[in-house]
Amino acid sequence: MDLCVFCLLLLSLQCVKGTATYYTLKPNVMVVVRERGLSMTQVPLLCGESYERDTIVWRIKGREVAQGNQVNVNVVMMQGGNYTCHAQSGALLNHTLVLVQAMDRRILDRSPDSDYLHCLSKNYSGVFQCSWRWSQTRKERAPDLFLVTASRSSVELTCTLGPSGQSITCRDHSHCPYSEERRRITLAVYVKNQFRVEKYTQAFYIADIVKPDRIPVTRLDTRSLEWGYPDTWSTPGSYFPLTFQVKEISRRHNCDCEGHGRRRCRMALHTTEGLQWPVRRGFLVCVRAQDALCNSTWSDWSLVRTNSTGAGGTKNNRKQKVKVNNRKGEKGL
Predict the structure, then answer these.
(1) What is the pLDDT of residues 272-327, one digit of tens each?
(2) What is the CA radius of gyration of the chain?
(3) pLDDT > 70: what percent of the chain?
(4) What span, in angstroms and rounded, lies between the C-alpha atoms of 101 and 37?
(5) What residue ranges do the domains of the chain occupy?
């Protein structure tokens, strides 16, 4: 056989079958990481240490695939399965779920302004929430949220899954809000669809994901507004100061309008450390807050409507001078 032809044949065989990376995700669950050009790989399975001298039969979907307590089985990439081991009598002894992890992303959607995982914290208490969205192609048949882990410096955090299965709330009990964070929090989300599993990760400091709640705005008098810190914000305010952004816009727009682009509007944007603002006749006022010491996420806008007649209106009009609309509900974290 020609040497070049032999080399090409050898390379093609190596691409069809080889050794892939695999790891144990949790008890009785093994994940095989799919590699480019690899269509099949061998995975070691163990029924149990106590069955070393027994006659063991391995099956998948009722079909026998191997014999022995510890065996290697051929796994076709993207076609994992539940391998069961049985005694000679046919009794079920144990099982191993083999999942295949691909590098591409199909199960979760990536938001335009964020990653696949969106994490936020209302303050520096160590409590945070992360959320994700199923892909549009998975809406009818939702995937399984297989496993979520959150840790800092190898210490597992306490987490609770949300009722929709698309968010999780975690708490770092060792976090001190008054000291500098030296290690990031690492979040890993494993989502399964049949025998395919996808892994999504994100690493962050609490300071990176802080977003204050919408600030409360009230009327000081007919000519000015007053606001304060959200009740959920960390205290004291002198140690956790907020800076505020005030947007004055024409009445036919909303707080999301901008001075350019599709949402172009007539507006004036101001930044202040103060807690009061004068009312201008005929304008809407939008106010939001941000941690003054780091470039974290701004809070949602608080919308304030002012009466078009201004401070010189009638007595009845003055009662309606300022209407604070804090928008029902908040966006999910």
Answers:
(1) 999 998 887 778 889 999 999 998 999 999 988 765 444 333 333 333 333 334 33
(2) 29
(3) 79
(4) 15
(5) 3-101, 118-209, 217-325
CA dihedral 202, 231, 163, 327 (to 10 degrees): -100
C-alpha 205/C-alpha 178 separation (Å) is 14
d(C-alpha 315, C-alpha 75), whole Å: 80
Tell me the sheet residues that pair with 167.
Answer: 131
For the whole model, what pTM was predicted? 0.76
Q: 245-263: per-residue pLDDT in tens?
A: 998 887 777 888 876 555 5
Task: Write the DSSP string, 111-142.
Answer: PTTS-SSEEEBSSSSSEEEEE--B-GGGSSSP
Query: Which of 310, 273, 267 has the alpha carbon at shortest distance from 286?
Result: 267
Q: Indicate the CATH number of 118-209 among 3.55.40.20, 2.60.40.10, 3.40.190.10, 3.40.50.300.
A: 2.60.40.10
- Cβ-count burial of 323 within 10 angstroms (0-12 exposed, 13-18 middle, 19+ buried)? exposed
Q: Where are the beta strands (DSSP E) in 181-314?
A: 185-193, 196-204, 217-221, 224-227, 242-250, 267-272, 276-278, 283-291, 302-306
CA distances from 192 to 138, 144, 199, 250 (A): 11, 5, 9, 48
What is the tens place of the pLDDT at every residue in 223-232?
A: 888 999 999 9
Q: 217-325 adopts what CATH topology?
A: Immunoglobulin-like (2.60.40)
C-alpha to C-alpha distance for 165 and 332, rounded to whole angstroms = 13
- Are the C-beta atoms of residues 82 and 97 closer than 8 Å to each other? yes
- 72 - beta bridge partners? 44
Q: What is the mean pLDDT of residues 143-152?
A: 88
C-alpha to C-alpha distances, 114 to 110, 111, 161, 300, 323, nearest whole angstrom: 7, 5, 21, 16, 33
Architecture of domain 3-101: Sandwich (2.60)
Bridge partner list, 189 = 148, 200
What the block records as the tokens of 180 is 């500098």
